[in-house]
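Thread title: Can someone regenerate the structure for this chain?

I was given the following input by a collaborator and told the matching structure tokens would be attached. They weren't. Posting the sequence so someone can regenerate them.
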Amino acid sequence: MSAPDVSVVVPVYNTMPYLTDCLKSLLEQTIGLDRLQIVAVDDGSTDTSGAELDRFAARHPGVFTVIHQANSGGPASPCNRGLDAATGRYVFFVGADDHLGPDALRRLVEAADAWESDVVLGRVVGVNSRHIYQDIFARTQADVDLFDSPLPRSLANTKLFRRELLEKYGIRYLEDLPIGSDLPFTLEACYRARRVSVLADYDYYYAVRRHSATNITYLSRHADRLRTVEATTAFVAGLIPAGEQRDAVLARRFDHEIAKLLEDDLLRLDRETQQLVHDGIGRLVRTHLTDGIAGQLNAETRIRLALARDGALDDLLAVIRQDARTGVPPTVVEGARRYAAYPGFRDPERGLPDSCFEVTAVPDWSAKLDATALAWETDERGEKVLTITAVSPLPDLAAAGAEPLALSAEEIPAEVGTVERGEHGTTLRIRFRVDELLAGSGVTGQRRAVSAQVGGFDPGRAVGAQTATGAAGSAAVRVPRVRATAPLVRRRGGRLYVVTPVLDDSGRLMISVVPVTASRVAAQLRRRLRRTR
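Best answer:
Regenerated them for you:
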């Protein structure tokens, strides 16, 4: 019997009822069951996931390989066990919450064979407002450069891998990482690959955000996340020699994983954990943050990283508190230099270097806005719009080089008008047309970050749709003192959708578009019942 074309590895831990949809999507693959091996590893589930795997295996003998093991504490061990049992020419990893488009595996395998690719990415879309970076899927490409593309932003393991490559270099998951173990695995595979390809012509992978948000990534703690970024950063440094190529990969780690540890939710942690995070990130900055990496980061991230390195914990918390509760601070202009006048700036008792607050060469500083009001309105054409009133501390945007200033929800531009200019700043009115938000979200919905961009609208620079060089020239709109407005229900085609302006954990404004489904309504009812008990 010949080897299957592709082995699908499914690590499983307490994922019912999502697991059923996942397994059904694998059995419905047009590549055919004779070319497919499904290796499912039950990592000590305490719900009915193990029994569901056995039920599917009994109904489809010869297709499923089911392995039951004691709980390991993370997906790395079951992924390794599944990989060891794989016999296909290619391997594809699927989260047990997620599912595939029916033609996904056939398209992926045919592309890998035609292009002789070792790694193939198929377009991933989010379900239930799960945010997925889409910049790598801008177009189909037979050959993508790891160091000169958005690929470092998309190192999840939801890809087709040539198994021969994985075995040749002994590429496996780091089992001492409870979260984030797919990043080193995928990075090394892409680094060693003769060719990495991207397919943007089909929805290959549906990444599901559980209504209960109870998987290990959603619940991970700051201490675990810090340990993960320390380990993955060290892995990158050990794999890739120092220089521009390493910086291209580490810029993503600083821009996302490391920066997220310094978001506004740090204010809600106990003092011991705050100190742990401050000290750990300080070490990472001193060891790995080069000038080349810093030049790719936005102003907010640069300042917070600098204070983790050069300041005390209270210095860092004061800056985060300013962003979260007060808003954008004034800008101090001294000749050709500009500084963000956060608490601690030139405070003789703090003794912090000016370099911590310098924003002279950071184009996104002039794009920083605070939203002061959110409202649903009907415009002069009778169309429903989300109107955002926002304030810049700059009294003259043109003099600061910030005009034109464009606003977008990632690839969807807004209409922007100036309401008032004064010595204390500039007030803007920003309008998003609801029909455009719905049309751009697809049937599964989408969650988009709202950002301001200096120099006019460029979807490649929008926050949440960034290029591999980060967010230079684009700043997320913050909402430090505004309560979110009520959701709006609108019909598109035969389905109802809920459109809601929401805040993420760092007070940044997002626009969520989600379909109204029975499971979503049930989840909302359960949450309300828990609150009333």
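The longest helix spans residues 222-239.
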